[in-house]
Amino acid sequence: MAFSHDEERVRAERARAVGLFRYALIREAADRRLSTKQRGRLVRVLAQRDHEGPFGRPVRVSRASIDRWIRAWRRGGFDALVPEPRRVGPRTPVEVLELAVALKKEVPARTAVQVAAILRAHSGWSPDERTLQRHFARLELTTRPDGRAPQTFGRFEADEPNARWTGDALHGPTVNGRKAILFAFLDDHSRLLTGYRWARREDTVRLEAALRTGIAARGIPASIYVDNGSAFVDKQLIRACASLGVRLVHSRPGQPEGRGKIERF
Protein backbone atom coordinates (compact mmCIF):
# COMPACT_ATOMS: atom_id res chain seq x y z
CA MET A 1 0.00 0.00 0.00
CA ALA A 2 1.51 3.36 -1.02
CA PHE A 3 1.90 6.16 1.50
CA SER A 4 0.07 9.46 1.11
CA HIS A 5 2.01 12.64 0.41
CA ASP A 6 1.63 13.68 4.07
CA GLU A 7 3.02 10.36 5.27
CA GLU A 8 5.93 10.62 2.85
CA ARG A 9 6.68 14.13 4.06
CA VAL A 10 6.63 13.06 7.72
CA ARG A 11 8.97 10.16 6.98
CA ALA A 12 11.34 12.45 5.08
CA GLU A 13 11.32 14.98 7.95
CA ARG A 14 12.08 12.24 10.46
CA ALA A 15 14.95 11.03 8.31
CA ARG A 16 16.38 14.58 8.15
CA ALA A 17 16.03 14.87 11.93
CA VAL A 18 18.11 11.71 12.30
CA GLY A 19 20.70 13.15 9.93
CA LEU A 20 20.89 16.39 11.93
CA PHE A 21 21.30 14.43 15.18
CA ARG A 22 24.16 12.45 13.68
CA TYR A 23 25.85 15.56 12.36
CA ALA A 24 25.53 17.41 15.69
CA LEU A 25 27.05 14.40 17.43
CA ILE A 26 30.08 13.99 15.16
CA ARG A 27 30.83 17.53 14.02
CA GLU A 28 33.56 18.14 16.63
CA ALA A 29 35.14 14.71 16.21
CA ALA A 30 35.02 15.03 12.42
CA ASP A 31 37.36 18.03 12.45
CA ARG A 32 40.19 17.16 10.07
CA ARG A 33 42.66 19.12 12.18
CA LEU A 34 42.43 16.56 14.98
CA SER A 35 45.09 13.89 15.22
CA THR A 36 44.05 10.24 15.23
CA LYS A 37 44.75 10.10 18.96
CA GLN A 38 42.69 13.22 19.69
CA ARG A 39 39.81 11.96 17.59
CA GLY A 40 39.87 8.54 19.25
CA ARG A 41 39.75 10.11 22.71
CA LEU A 42 36.82 12.33 21.74
CA VAL A 43 34.88 9.45 20.14
CA ARG A 44 35.35 7.30 23.27
CA VAL A 45 33.88 10.08 25.41
CA LEU A 46 30.90 10.44 23.06
CA ALA A 47 30.27 6.70 23.12
CA GLN A 48 30.30 6.53 26.92
CA ARG A 49 27.48 8.94 27.60
CA ASP A 50 23.81 9.33 26.77
CA HIS A 51 22.64 11.90 24.24
CA GLU A 52 19.26 13.42 23.56
CA GLY A 53 18.10 11.58 20.45
CA PRO A 54 16.43 13.14 17.42
CA PHE A 55 12.98 12.52 18.90
CA GLY A 56 13.67 13.55 22.50
CA ARG A 57 14.55 10.19 24.03
CA PRO A 58 18.03 9.53 25.49
CA VAL A 59 20.17 7.32 23.29
CA ARG A 60 23.68 5.89 23.44
CA VAL A 61 25.74 5.48 20.28
CA SER A 62 28.57 3.00 19.85
CA ARG A 63 32.10 3.96 18.79
CA ALA A 64 31.66 1.93 15.62
CA SER A 65 28.56 3.94 14.66
CA ILE A 66 30.26 7.27 15.38
CA ASP A 67 33.29 6.27 13.29
CA ARG A 68 30.98 5.12 10.48
CA TRP A 69 29.08 8.41 10.52
CA ILE A 70 32.33 10.41 10.39
CA ARG A 71 33.46 8.44 7.35
CA ALA A 72 30.05 8.88 5.72
CA TRP A 73 30.04 12.62 6.33
CA ARG A 74 33.53 13.03 4.86
CA ARG A 75 32.53 10.97 1.85
CA GLY A 76 29.11 12.44 1.11
CA GLY A 77 28.40 15.35 3.43
CA PHE A 78 25.13 15.85 5.26
CA ASP A 79 23.08 13.79 2.80
CA ALA A 80 25.17 10.72 3.64
CA LEU A 81 24.01 10.99 7.27
CA VAL A 82 20.31 11.02 6.38
CA PRO A 83 18.85 7.49 6.36
CA GLU A 84 16.76 6.52 3.37
CA PRO A 85 13.10 6.68 4.46
CA ARG A 86 11.66 3.18 4.44
CA ARG A 87 8.82 2.57 2.02
CA VAL A 88 6.44 -0.24 1.41
CA GLY A 89 4.43 -0.97 -1.69
CA PRO A 90 5.28 0.82 -4.94
CA ARG A 91 8.53 2.74 -4.59
CA THR A 92 7.14 5.65 -6.57
CA PRO A 93 3.39 6.27 -6.23
CA VAL A 94 1.57 6.38 -9.55
CA GLU A 95 0.04 9.77 -8.80
CA VAL A 96 3.51 11.27 -8.31
CA LEU A 97 4.66 9.97 -11.69
CA GLU A 98 1.49 11.28 -13.29
CA LEU A 99 2.13 14.73 -11.81
CA ALA A 100 5.75 14.59 -13.00
CA VAL A 101 4.60 13.77 -16.53
CA ALA A 102 2.05 16.60 -16.44
CA LEU A 103 4.79 19.05 -15.37
CA LYS A 104 7.07 17.83 -18.16
CA LYS A 105 4.34 18.11 -20.79
CA GLU A 106 3.35 21.56 -19.53
CA VAL A 107 6.90 22.85 -20.17
CA PRO A 108 8.83 20.33 -22.31
CA ALA A 109 12.10 22.15 -21.66
CA ARG A 110 11.91 21.28 -17.96
CA THR A 111 14.65 18.90 -16.88
CA ALA A 112 14.20 16.00 -14.47
CA VAL A 113 16.06 18.06 -11.85
CA GLN A 114 13.58 20.92 -12.23
CA VAL A 115 10.57 18.60 -12.12
CA ALA A 116 11.92 16.95 -8.97
CA ALA A 117 12.36 20.36 -7.33
CA ILE A 118 8.74 21.29 -8.12
CA LEU A 119 7.50 17.98 -6.73
CA ARG A 120 9.45 18.48 -3.51
CA ALA A 121 8.05 21.99 -3.12
CA HIS A 122 4.52 20.68 -3.82
CA SER A 123 4.46 17.56 -1.66
CA GLY A 124 7.70 17.44 0.33
CA TRP A 125 9.09 14.44 -1.57
CA SER A 126 10.12 13.47 -5.07
CA PRO A 127 11.58 10.43 -6.81
CA ASP A 128 15.26 10.90 -7.60
CA GLU A 129 16.16 12.56 -10.88
CA ARG A 130 17.35 9.31 -12.50
CA THR A 131 13.96 7.69 -11.86
CA LEU A 132 12.22 10.64 -13.52
CA GLN A 133 14.65 10.60 -16.45
CA ARG A 134 14.00 6.91 -17.09
CA HIS A 135 10.25 7.43 -16.83
CA PHE A 136 10.34 10.35 -19.28
CA ALA A 137 12.48 8.30 -21.68
CA ARG A 138 9.98 5.42 -21.62
CA LEU A 139 7.22 7.86 -22.56
CA GLU A 140 9.42 9.51 -25.20
CA LEU A 141 9.28 12.85 -23.40
CA THR A 142 13.00 13.51 -23.70
CA THR A 143 12.76 14.99 -27.19
CA ARG A 144 12.41 18.67 -27.91
CA PRO A 145 9.02 20.14 -28.85
CA ASP A 146 10.10 20.00 -32.52
CA GLY A 147 10.82 16.26 -32.23
CA ARG A 148 14.60 16.51 -32.17
CA ALA A 149 16.68 14.82 -29.49
CA PRO A 150 18.08 17.07 -26.75
CA GLN A 151 21.45 18.61 -27.42
CA THR A 152 24.34 16.65 -25.94
CA PHE A 153 27.59 18.05 -24.66
CA GLY A 154 31.06 16.54 -24.66
CA ARG A 155 32.92 15.96 -21.42
CA PHE A 156 35.15 18.78 -20.23
CA GLU A 157 37.92 18.69 -17.65
CA ALA A 158 40.37 21.40 -16.66
CA ASP A 159 44.00 20.55 -17.43
CA GLU A 160 45.28 21.13 -13.88
CA PRO A 161 44.11 21.97 -10.34
CA ASN A 162 42.97 25.56 -9.76
CA ALA A 163 42.47 26.13 -13.48
CA ARG A 164 38.71 26.31 -12.94
CA TRP A 165 36.39 26.09 -9.95
CA THR A 166 32.68 25.53 -10.47
CA GLY A 167 30.33 27.07 -7.92
CA ASP A 168 26.69 26.50 -7.06
CA ALA A 169 24.11 26.90 -4.30
CA LEU A 170 22.03 24.00 -3.01
CA HIS A 171 18.78 24.45 -1.10
CA GLY A 172 19.19 21.92 1.70
CA PRO A 173 17.10 20.82 4.69
CA THR A 174 14.82 23.05 6.72
CA VAL A 175 16.35 23.74 10.15
CA ASN A 176 14.28 25.42 12.86
CA GLY A 177 11.74 26.44 10.26
CA ARG A 178 14.26 28.06 7.92
CA LYS A 179 15.87 26.78 4.74
CA ALA A 180 19.56 25.91 4.93
CA ILE A 181 21.54 26.77 1.80
CA LEU A 182 24.92 25.29 0.89
CA PHE A 183 27.33 27.38 -1.17
CA ALA A 184 30.12 25.22 -2.59
CA PHE A 185 33.03 25.39 -5.04
CA LEU A 186 34.49 22.31 -6.74
CA ASP A 187 37.84 22.07 -8.50
CA ASP A 188 37.08 20.90 -12.04
CA HIS A 189 40.29 18.90 -12.47
CA SER A 190 40.60 17.09 -9.12
CA ARG A 191 36.89 17.08 -8.10
CA LEU A 192 38.07 18.46 -4.75
CA LEU A 193 35.58 20.52 -2.72
CA THR A 194 37.67 23.64 -2.27
CA GLY A 195 35.37 25.96 -0.33
CA TYR A 196 31.90 25.74 1.14
CA ARG A 197 29.56 27.36 3.66
CA TRP A 198 26.08 26.66 5.01
CA ALA A 199 23.96 29.79 5.17
CA ARG A 200 20.44 31.04 5.87
CA ARG A 201 20.34 33.37 2.88
CA GLU A 202 21.29 32.96 -0.76
CA ASP A 203 23.24 36.18 -1.14
CA THR A 204 26.68 37.36 -2.17
CA VAL A 205 27.95 37.84 1.39
CA ARG A 206 27.50 34.13 2.18
CA LEU A 207 28.76 33.16 -1.27
CA GLU A 208 31.96 35.13 -0.79
CA ALA A 209 32.46 33.55 2.64
CA ALA A 210 32.50 30.13 0.95
CA LEU A 211 34.88 31.41 -1.71
CA ARG A 212 37.24 32.91 0.89
CA THR A 213 37.57 29.61 2.74
CA GLY A 214 38.49 27.89 -0.53
CA ILE A 215 41.06 30.52 -1.48
CA ALA A 216 42.59 30.46 2.00
CA ALA A 217 42.96 26.68 1.84
CA ARG A 218 43.73 26.07 -1.85
CA GLY A 219 44.96 29.29 -3.40
CA ILE A 220 43.45 31.54 -6.08
CA PRO A 221 41.83 29.81 -9.06
CA ALA A 222 42.39 31.06 -12.59
CA SER A 223 38.65 31.10 -13.28
CA ILE A 224 35.32 30.47 -11.59
CA TYR A 225 32.33 29.05 -13.47
CA VAL A 226 28.87 29.75 -12.04
CA ASP A 227 25.26 30.10 -13.15
CA ASN A 228 23.20 33.28 -13.39
CA GLY A 229 21.66 33.25 -9.91
CA SER A 230 21.40 36.65 -8.26
CA ALA A 231 24.26 35.97 -5.83
CA PHE A 232 26.58 35.00 -8.68
CA VAL A 233 25.98 38.06 -10.85
CA ASP A 234 26.25 40.62 -8.05
CA LYS A 235 28.69 43.46 -8.72
CA GLN A 236 30.38 42.83 -5.38
CA LEU A 237 31.45 39.35 -6.53
CA ILE A 238 32.56 40.70 -9.90
CA ARG A 239 34.73 43.34 -8.18
CA ALA A 240 36.24 40.75 -5.82
CA CYS A 241 37.17 38.47 -8.72
CA ALA A 242 38.59 41.40 -10.65
CA SER A 243 40.79 42.45 -7.74
CA LEU A 244 42.10 38.89 -7.37
CA GLY A 245 42.68 38.42 -11.08
CA VAL A 246 40.07 35.63 -11.27
CA ARG A 247 38.14 35.22 -14.51
CA LEU A 248 34.43 34.98 -13.63
CA VAL A 249 32.45 32.98 -16.20
CA HIS A 250 28.65 32.59 -16.21
CA SER A 251 26.92 29.70 -17.95
CA ARG A 252 24.46 30.66 -20.66
CA PRO A 253 20.76 30.19 -19.78
CA GLY A 254 19.63 26.80 -21.03
CA GLN A 255 23.22 25.74 -21.75
CA PRO A 256 24.36 23.72 -18.69
CA GLU A 257 27.52 22.21 -20.17
CA GLY A 258 30.40 21.91 -17.69
CA ARG A 259 28.16 21.99 -14.59
CA GLY A 260 27.62 18.27 -14.22
CA LYS A 261 30.30 17.73 -11.57
CA ILE A 262 28.98 20.30 -9.11
CA GLU A 263 25.37 19.23 -9.82
CA ARG A 264 26.23 15.60 -9.00
CA PHE A 265 28.03 16.71 -5.84
What does this structure look like?
- With 265 residues, the chain is α/β, with parallel strands linked by helices.
- It has three domains: 5-81, no CATH class; 94-138; 165-264, Nucleotidyltransferase, domain 5, CATH 3.30.420.
- Helix content is 43%, strand content 15%.
- The protein has nine helices and seven strands; from the N terminus they run ααββααααβββαβαβα.
- The chain has helices at 5-26, 36-47, 63-76, 94-106, 112-123, 129-138, 204-218, 235-244, 260-264, and strands at residues 51-52, 58-59, 165-175, 178-187, 193-199, 223-226, 247-250.
- The strands form two sheets. A five-stranded mixed β-sheet has the order 5-4-3-6-7. A two-stranded antiparallel sheet has the order 1-2.
- α4 crosses α5 (112-123) and α5 (112-123) packs across α6 (129-138).
- The protein is globular and about 55 Å long.
- 20% of the residues are buried.
- The mean pLDDT is 81.
Concise description?
By secondary structure, the chain is α/β, with parallel strands linked by helices.
Give a topology summary.
Layout: H1 5-26, H2 36-47, E1 51-52, E2 58-59, H3 63-76, H4 94-106, H5 112-123, H6 129-138, E3 165-175, E4 178-187, E5 193-199, H7 204-218, E6 223-226, H8 235-244, E7 247-250, H9 260-264
Parallel strand pairs: 3-6, 6-7
Antiparallel strand pairs: 1-2, 3-4, 4-5
Helix pairs in contact: 1-3, 4-5, 5-6
